[in-house]
Each structure stands twice: as C-alpha cells, then as structure tokens.
Amino acid sequence: MVRRWLNALPLRSRLALLVAVTVAVAVAACAMVAWLLVRAELMTSLDDALRDNRVPGQVVIRQVESGQCRAVPAKERQAVPNPFDSTVQIVDANGTSCMAFGNQPLPVTDADVEVAQGQRSESIHSARADDGEDYRVLTRPLEGTAAAVSVARPISEVDRSLDTLALVLGLVAAAGVLGAAGAGVALARAGLRPVDRLTGAVEHVARTEDLTVHIPVEGDDEIARLSRSFNSMTASLASSRELQQQLIADAGHELRTPLTSLRTNIDLLVRSEETGRELPPADRTALLASVKAQMAELGVLIGDLQELSRPDAAPAGSPPVALVALHDTAERAVERVRLRGSGITVTARLDPWYVRAEPAALERAVVNLLDNAVKFSPPGGAVDVKLEGGTLRVRDWGPGVAEEDLPYVFDRFWRSPTARSLPGSGLGLSIVARTARQAGGEAELRRPEGGGTEAVLRLPGAPEPLPEPPGASDA
User: N or C: which end of the chain has fewer CB within 10 A?
Assistant: First the structure.
C-alpha cells in the first residue's frame, strides 16, 4: 500500500519526501544521542553531588541515640525539617533501616547491607520509594558503628532538566524537518529542471514530429549525458527521415522515366487500335520490345528498392545467414553474365573461399559487380574476375571512373555524368556495399594502372568450410 502510494506521487514530491524523511531520521538520531549523553552527564553530576554532600556521622548518631531514627508508619509520615536537602537513612548489618531525615523510606538492597557489614566501601544505585518516586541512593559506612548511612536525592531533579531538553530538541527537530522539506522541494525543482526541459522536448517531438529540437547541454553529469543522448537520437532520426525522403524522391525520379516510356508506347498501341490504323509490323514489334524492356527495367528497379529498404540489422523473418562458398557464387554469376551474350569475354580465376552471408544477397551483389563491368566495357572487351585470399576483384578496361566521382559511386541512385544515358537505376553498387557490410566486409571501386575500373569486394572467411557457430542449428 505504501509503495503504491509512493509510486503515485510525482517524482518531485518523492524527492522532497525522501529528503525530509532522511533529515528527520538524522535529526531524531542526533537528538536521541544528545539526550542520552546529557542524561548520563546529569546522572554523573547527581552522583557527584551525593558524594560531596557528606552527612556528619555524629549528627546521625545523635539522631539514633535520641530515638528519632525509627521506621515511620505510612499514616504517620509527615515532612520533617531536612538540613541536608537529602533523604538520610540508617541501615544496620541485619538490613534494618530507619529514617534520620526525610519522610520516604527507601528499600534496602543487598549492596546496602554489604556496606553496613563492611564488605564494600560504598554502594550507589537507583531505588523507588513507596510513593513511586525514583531516587538516586549513595550508601557509605557510618564510622564508629556497625551500620551504614544512605543518602538519597530524587531523580526528578534530573528528569525536569531532561524534559526541558527533550522539548527543546523536539522543537529544533520539527523546525529542521520543516526546513528540510522546504529545501527538498527547492532542490527537487532545481535538480529536475533539466528533466522538465527534456520532457517538454520529448512531448514537443511527439506532438509535432519536429526533429530539429536541440536541448542545451551543460556539465557532464547524468542529466547532461541524457540530454546528449536525446540530441543524438533526434539527429539520427532526422538523418534517417532525410534519407527516407531522399530515397522516395530518387525512386520517384527513377520510376518516372520507364513509366513515361511505357505510357507513350502503350498510348501509341491503343490509339492504333482505336483509330483502326494499324502500325507497320516492324514498328509494332519495336514498340512491344520497348514495352517489354521497360517492364523488365521496372522489375529490376523495384527489386533493388526492396533490397535497399531492408534495415542493415536483419529483422525477424528475414533470410538466414548461412555458410556460402564464395567461389561457387562467383562462378554462377560469371555463367549468368556469359549466357546473356553481350559479346564481352569474361575470364575467372577463383580460389576456394567460404564466408557467412545471406546466399541470395551475396549472389546478387556479385552479379551487380559483373553487370557493372560488362556495361562499361567497350564492344568485344574483356572482364577479368579473380578471387584470392577472400578478395574478389572484377576488372574491366572501359573508360573508368573519374577520380572526383569515386567517393560517390556507392551512394543510392548516383550515376556519373557519362553513365546517365545508359540503362540502370544507380542502385547496383549500393546493394554491393550493403551486402559487404552485412557480411562484415567492405567494397571498393578504384582506378587501376592501365585504365578501366577495378571493383574490389573483401569478405572475412576461410579457404576451408567454417564450423557452425553455437546455436546456429537451432535458428
């Protein structure tokens, strides 16, 4: 119940309550220790006063000899003049007592009897009289007799001072707790002010989807780290949104060209059917071939977009990573390129190399490298494919890539000015770079000596099949 009530309170109230309770406990502990120390000191002072207030033995003896020291019945007790401001009682060796001064007889203890018998030099203890009042009793031998004299003073003398001290400490503690509660509220407000700013920023982002919000960061404490993390998160989200919008804009731009060509060709075919004016067979065949080519280009572009739309971290349900023979994958890709009959000679020297990757994505990446090399090779040219030590190199002898264009070749939809008239979506090399990252490797495009372009794909692996990682069979 208490925990539920605490959880229902605002964080600021909980912090203030925590400060107040902590201070209250500390003040109460200090007050208790102070009270106990003062009580011990006062009791010591009372004992010293009893020791200093020595009752002359001759006076007590005269009281006994005159018959004025006797056990007083309760009904006959009355105040007797007391010159010593103390209760004085005589105790003999048999434990019998009589009052010399005072009117409240005190109980006789074994220690008092031992003092009367000469076995102890003194005895000091607390005792309660018949009226319920507590006394501090000091018993010493009565010189020249086989008895002892007990001198007692009421502990109420100490209790009155302790009660006053307790009242003062209680007031001070109450004032301290109230002050601590106020300080706790002030500290909670000051300490949570950055959290309030962060909360306001988060609510603003949730309400407006404005990712340009930036929280000022001061210091290097936990709140500052949280603010920096929030700023980094919003910056990452803004960058992701910008990339998403750019991807949509670039995809729309790339889709517009084949769609426009398709619509134009289909409009010509429809108009020919509607007007009854048949197109020449050669023109009709060319139009249908163009429609087919544009549809194939659309299919490739949509496939590339689907591939790039997937996150780098494979989500649940994505194709599993498996042990892949990179040399077999490269060989299949080479055969696919050769079957297309482009007139380009493709030679391959492939050493065994095994990697862990998504098989379909890896084969698509290798095919993209080969297609890119074939596309930029001159008619009757050659493409050299070499796999050695986990590095796949695809070399062509085409016009090559300008030095200033090399940093952008793996960007989505980027194409050099000289390649914009050629078919393609500008996504092939982006897919290669993405596949390399997912497999823990890297992709590079460079200008080798002798002209042309060399694409390099490096993937970690081994020349022999790798053992299955623990738990792979359960995936």
Answer: N
* CB-based burial, 295-305: b 16+ in 10 Å, e otherwise: eebbebbeebb
CA nearest 342: which of 396, 376, 379? 379
From first CA to last CA, the distance across the chain in angstroms is 45
Q: What angle do CA 327, 331, 336 make, to 5 degrees?
A: 150
Q: Which two tokens stand for residue 217?
A: 């960061």
In sequence order, what are the beta bridge partners of 391?
388, 458
Q: Using an 8 Å Cβ cutoff, are 284 and 273 in contact?
A: no
**Alpha carbon of residue 168 to chain centroid:** 45
Condensed to tens digits (0 to 9), the pLDDT of residues 409-423 reads: 777 655 555 554 455
Q: Is 0.70 topped by the overall pTM?
A: no
Query: What stretch of H or E contains 39?
Result: helix 11-52
3-state secondary structure at position 101 = strand
Residues near 134 by beta carbon (within 8 Å), at least 6 away in sequence: 126, 127, 128, 154, 155, 156
φ, ψ of residue 451 to 5 degrees: the values are 90, 175
How far is the C-alpha of 36 from the C-alpha of 182, rounded, in Å?
29
Task: Give 20: exposed, middle or buried? Use CB within 10 Å, 0-12, 13-18, 19+.
Answer: buried
Helix (H) or strand (E) holding 438: helix 428-438
Q: How far apart are CA 64 and CA 55, in angstroms?
A: 14
Which long-range contacts link 249-252 to residues 24+ away (Cβ below 8 Å)? 250/412, 250/413, 250/426, 251/301, 251/305, 251/413
Residue 461: which of 365, 392, 389, 393 has the closest Cα? 389
Instruction: Return the residue matching tokens 């990252």.
Output: 437
User: β-pairing, 345-350 with 382-388?
Assistant: parallel
> What is the Rg, in whole angstroms, of the alpha carbon atoms belonging to the chain?
51
- How far apart (Å, rounded) are the C-alpha atoms in residues 430 and 337? 20
Do 343 and 382 form a contact (C-beta atoms < 8 A)?
Answer: no
Dump pLDDT digits (tens) for 236-290.
888 777 766 766 665 665 566 667 778 888 888 888 888 877 778 887 888 888 7
CA distance 270 to 291: 13
